[in-house]
Design a protein that fits this description.
The relative contact order is 0.15. The termini are far apart. The chain is α/β, with parallel strands linked by helices. The strands form two sheets. The protein has a five-stranded parallel sheet with strand order 4-5-6-7-8. Strands 1-2-3 form a three-stranded parallel sheet. It binds zinc ion.
Length: 266
């Protein structure tokens, strides 16, 4: 029996934090490995104002696209003038999207008011700049959909690490969003999410790893990296009863559709 070498379908990780310190010691070497595994690009969202410049610098001369935003997880670190800094940074550095930002209602309730304010302001900025958004949403899918409608935000974007219901997913798709699917589907307890993904249309999904965060079940103690996307694509394929390559091609296509500036980079 001979084993024919198979061409790898080029893939893009639609959401990873390749700028985080977990990659500091081997970033270049690991990127070389990723390209050998078929990776042709990364989308790296910004999370705090203090880390944007390192992120922007790190993406130069690489097919890595950055977004800029103020993540709710770091709500205590965001300062009063960070929104102004964000609007200046966007005018100067042309990110592909505003993000990641959003609403995280798993965090303590005393942060909710500030989270909502910061989330609305970033939507307004994205609306003014006509940019899509990359959203972090936990236990707040209905609130995000309501905010999008209230603001009249029409640029769409990605709901990263989607874990809502089928109904919530469909409502967000109607509002112009793609749903980011990643490591959460690999966990044994995620029966409901796997069923939801199986029922969502392939043209609404984008693959992501959120690496080094959101470690998939198959990694045990290892560092999560964009290469996890290959196994995740096969998991989505088995849920949708199709080939992994079809999922990767759909994900790439959907990502370009919702992030028009990506074409200039990847
Ligand atoms: Zn993220």
């Amino acid at each position: 029996m001979s084993i024919e070498p198979k061409a790898i379908t080029p893939w893009i990780d639609s959401h990873c934090h390749f700028d985080f310190q977990q990659f500091d010691h081997d970033r270049e070497q690991h990127w070389q490995f990723l390209t050998r595994m078929g990776c042709v690009g990364l989308v790296i969202p910004g999370v705090t104002a203090n880390t944007w410049s390192t992120l922007i610098g790190g993406c130069s001369n690489k097919p890595w696209a950055y977004a800029l935003g103020l993540h709710p997880y770091f709500i205590d670190q965001h300062e009063a003038d960070d929104l102004l800094r964000l609007s200046i940074a966007c005018e100067t550095h042309h990110p592909i999207a505003i993000g990641e930002f959003g609403l995280d209602f798993v965090l303590p309730e005393e942060t909710f008011t500030r989270q909502i304010e910061l989330c609305q302001q970033q939507f307004q900025l994205a609306k003014t700049l006509e940019l899509p958004v990359i959203l972090h949403v936990r236990k707040a899918y209905d609130e995000i959909a309501a905010m999008v409608r209230r603001i009249g935000f029409k640029q769409g974007g990605i709901i990263h690490a989607f874990s809502g219901s089928l109904q919530q997913g469909e409502a967000l798709i109607k509002l112009g969003f793609k749903l980011g699917i990643g490591g959460a589907i690999s966990h044994g307890r995620a029966l409901k999410l796997r069923k939801t993904v199986a029922n969502l249309p392939l043209d609404a999904l984008v693959l992501e790893t959120d690496s080094p965060d959101m470690k998939p079940a198959f990694l045990a103690g290892q560092r999560n990296s964009p290469v996890s996307l290959l196994l995740l694509s096969q998991m989505v394929a088995s849920l949708k009863d199709c080939h992994g390559d079809k999922v990767i091609l759909a994900s790439n296509h959907n990502l370009y559709a919702v992030m028009p500036r990506l074409k200039a980079i990847i």
